[in-house]
C-alpha cells in the first residue's frame, strides 16, 4: 500500500515517495510526549514528512466534546498531557486504519493489554515496507510462553520491530527536562539509527543497542520492582531497607532476563533502559505511587480502585506484569527461584499482606 495520487484521467497511480511518514499508535501520557518529540524532529529532518498522525482511542470528555477533536483544535491532549502543545504538525486521528495508512514508520505506545486487539485490527492494513518501534512496557503470556510486545508486533504484522525504553517519566520529558533512552534493535543498525534521529532532541538523548530482548525486558520488569519499592515506602521502612530491596530486585531482574533469553547482554543494564530506568521508576513513577497507597491501606483497597482514583484514566502496568511474570514462573517451575516476583504478585492479589515484602527481603 504505497501512497497514491490521482492522474488527470482519474486513475490512482503509485508515486515514489522517498520521505518517511510517521504514525504514533497511542495517545496516552507517553504517547503524547512521543508525538511531541517526533513532531519537533520531522519539521527539521528533510527525510521525513512534517505531518505526524497520532491514533486516538476516542473518548468523550466531561464537556461532551470528543478528545480527538479537542486535540486538533487546541493542539493539546487535554486529558493525558494537559498544558503541553504537541506541535502543529501532530494530527489526532480516531480511525485506526486511517491513522496508519501511508505510514512506513509506526510507533506503538499504548498500555500493553490493548496491543493484541490493535494488532489484529491492523493485519493487512499497513504498508509492506513498514518498520515499527515499541515504547510499550509489558508482555503477553500465552500457553507456549511469554511473548514480548515487539515479538507480538513482528509475528502478527510481519514487520521488523525495534524498542525504545529508558528512564523516562513522560511528564518530565514533556517539560523538556533532560533524559536518556535506548533503542534496542535486532540486526538492522541503519533502521535503529533512523529511530534514534527521529526521537533525539537536545533534552532527550537516544542511543542504540543491539539487544531487543534485554532492553525490552528491563523496561517491562522494572514496573514490578517499582511495585515492591512502593510497598516498602508505604510501610515506611526507610531508605536503608529500600536500598537493600532495590539491590535484591535488580539482581533478580537481571537473573530472570538471562534465564528467559540467554542472548541478553549484561552491558544493557548499564544503558538508560536498565538501572537508570529502575531507579527513576522506583522514585517517581505511577506504579510506586499506587503501591505506596496500597501498603498504607494495609492492602484493603484494591489496585483497580486505587488506579481509577489516583491515575484518572492512565493505566498501571506493574500489577498486570507481575501476574504475567508469575504465570511464566509457574509454567517453568521457577516460582521459588524468583521470590520477589512471586511475593509481589501474591501481595497484589491479597494472598499475602504488604508486610510480606519485608519478610522476603530479610530472608
Ligand atoms: N507515562 C509514562 O511516563 C511512560 C513512560 C515510559 C513508558 N510508558 C509506557 O508507555 C505505554 C503507554 O502508556 P501511556 O502513559 O502513554 O498511556 P496512559 O496510561 O497515560 O493512557 C492510557 C491510554 O490507553 C488508552 N485506552 C484506554 N482504553 C483503551 C482501549 N480499549 N484500547 C486502546 N487504547 C485504550 C487511553 O485512551 C489512553 O490513551 C505503556 O506501556 C507504559 O508502560 C509510559
UniProtKB/TrEMBL annotation:
NAD(+) binds at residues 26-31, 57, 114, 170, 286, 315, 317. It catalyses: sn-glycerol 3-phosphate + NAD(+) = dihydroxyacetone phosphate + NADH + H(+). PROSITE patterns: NAD_G3PDH. GO terms for cellular component: cytosol. SUPFAM superfamilies: 6-phosphogluconate dehydrogenase C-terminal domain-like, NAD(P)-binding Rossmann-fold domains. Keywords: NAD, Oxidoreductase. The active site is at residue 222. It holds the Pfam family NAD_Gly3P_dh_C. Residues 22-189 form the Glycerol-3-phosphate dehydrogenase NAD-dependent N-terminal domain. Residues 211-359 form the Glycerol-3-phosphate dehydrogenase NAD-dependent C-terminal domain. Substrate binds at residues 137, 286-287. InterPro entries: 6-PGluconate_DH-like_C_sf, 6PGD_dom2, G3P_DH_NAD-dep, G3P_DH_NAD-dep_C, G3P_DH_NAD-dep_euk, G3P_DH_NAD-dep_N, NAD(P)-bd_dom_sf. Its EC number is 1.1.1.8. It comes from the Eukaryota. GO terms for molecular function: glycerol-3-phosphate dehydrogenase (NAD+) activity; NAD binding; protein homodimerization activity. One of its GO terms (biological process) is carbohydrate metabolic process. Belongs to the NAD-dependent glycerol-3-phosphate dehydrogenase family. This is Glycerol-3-phosphate dehydrogenase [NAD(+)]. The lineage of its organism: Eukaryota, Viridiplantae, Streptophyta, Embryophyta, Tracheophyta.
